[in-house]
UniProtKB/TrEMBL annotation:
Pfam families: AAA_SelU, Rhodanese. It comes from the Bacteria. One of its GO terms (molecular function) is tRNA 2-selenouridine synthase activity. Keywords: Selenium. This is tRNA 2-selenouridine(34) synthase MnmH. SUPFAM superfamilies: P-loop containing nucleoside triphosphate hydrolases, Rhodanese/Cell cycle control phosphatase. Coiled coil: none annotated. Residues 11-133 form the Rhodanese domain. It comes from Propionigenium maris DSM 9537.
Length: 351
């Protein structure tokens, strides 16, 4: 059986990673770019695990083989289609054990160029942890600051669409970084998935700078890797400023689809920090669907005083005042140009 390290896989010109773990495992802990062709679904994996613990390893294997045999025709079609796009099929599971070994052996015997990822997802995680500090070396971070509702994420999105180098930590974290940060997010947070997304972005970057949003070390329930957080602290700092009316518009747009009951649940958490009468007042606004008034009140009375402490920590390299997002984007681009950070390959060759 051919076994590849993850480092070797990255050097292959036409190879695809095929994750044979259950869909639940894959969703929480994927390798970016891999496809999921599970040999057991979530319920089947749970049943096999129960049999292993409560009956015997032999019974678990017997049950697993029964499940797998029924899936083989469907798996064959999926993998056969992938073989038409890629020259090499690289299978992996949690630790490079029985699941990936059996599938690799089967498809190798059928004449496919099949390999197994050495050590499975566990070895990939070790590679990520080792490489993030090295990949981060030499990158300059331009950190966008601004009060709640200022539109930092929207500015980053527009800059990325225009080809500028952006590291959207909140997107990778599946959280917006506040008490209300989990609202309108479709996935549960995962530290491993977060780090994998960050690693992939570092590995495939085109420039030696990143535009990022100002964050604390923790975004919801995930943590920014220490080398990146330190580089953000040591980087350039740009403050965005706009009117309260514009901020309310942005907040209304961001949370337009948030269920009221979930917003109320988030507001309850503020009881540790605010007077009871203030929290009750916010709750009444939400119940009465006075969303604009709620947004303005909570920003003026809670978030702005809180964020001012963060703002006071920095000597900003630039301040961008704007009333529409395009003006904010142009302001950030002007800063990048002034600092000579965004340089195309043709510009570098010309020198």
């Amino acid at each position: 059986m051919v076994v590849l390290s993850y480092e070797r896989f990255l050097k292959e010109k036409s190879a695809i990673l095929i994750d044979v773990r259950s869909p639940k495992e894959f969703e929480a802990e994927p390798i970016p770019g891999a496809v999921n062709v599970p040999i057991l679904d979530n319920d089947e994996r749970a049943a096999v695990g129960t049999a292993y613990k409560q009956v015997s390893p032999e019974e678990a294997k017997r049950l697993g083989m029964n499940y797998i045999s029924k899936k083989l025709p469907e798996m064959f079609e999926e993998i056969n289609n992938l073989s038409k796009e890629y020259k090499k099929l690289v299978f992996y599971c949690a630790r490079g054990g029985m699941r990936s070994s059996s599938v690799t052996s089967l498809f190798a015997a059928l004449g496919y160029k099949a390999s197994k990822l050495d050590g499975g997802y566990k070895s990939y995680r070790q590679h990520v942890a080792k490489e993030i500090p090295h990949l981060n070396e030499g990158i300059k971070y331009v950190v966008l600051h601004g009060r709640t509702g200022i539109g930092k994420t929207k500015v980053l999105q527009r800059l990325e669409e225009r080809g500028y180098s952006v590291l959207d930590l909140e997107k990778f974290a599946d959280h917006k970084g506040s008490f209300y940060g989990a609202l309108c997010e479709s996935r549960e947070q995962s530290q491993k998935r977060f780090e994998s997304e960050v690693f992939e972005h570092l590995r495939t970057r085109k420039y030696d700078y990143f535009l990022v949003e100002s964050e604390s070390k923790r975004i919801g329930n995930v943590y920014v890797p220490e080398p990146i957080f330190q580089s953000m602290t040591d980087g350039y700092h740009v403050l965005l400023e706009t009117s309260m009316d514009h901020r309310v518009e942005i907040i209304m747009e961001d949370y337009a689809k948030a269920p009221v009951d979930e917003m109320l649940a988030c507001t309850t958490k503020l009881r540790r920090y605010l007077k009871e009468e203030d929290v009750v007042r916010y709750e009444e606004m939400l119940k009465n669907k006075e969303f604009a008034l709620f947004s303005r009140s909570i920003m003026e009375e809670y978030y702005d005083p809180l964020y001012q402490k963060s703002i006071n920590k920095y000597d900003f390299d630039d301040t961008v005042y704007y009333e529409d997002l395009n003006t904010a984007v142009e302001g950030v681009i002007n800063f990048l140009t002034k600092e000579d950070l965004h340089r195309t390959e043709s510009e570098e060759v010309a020198e």
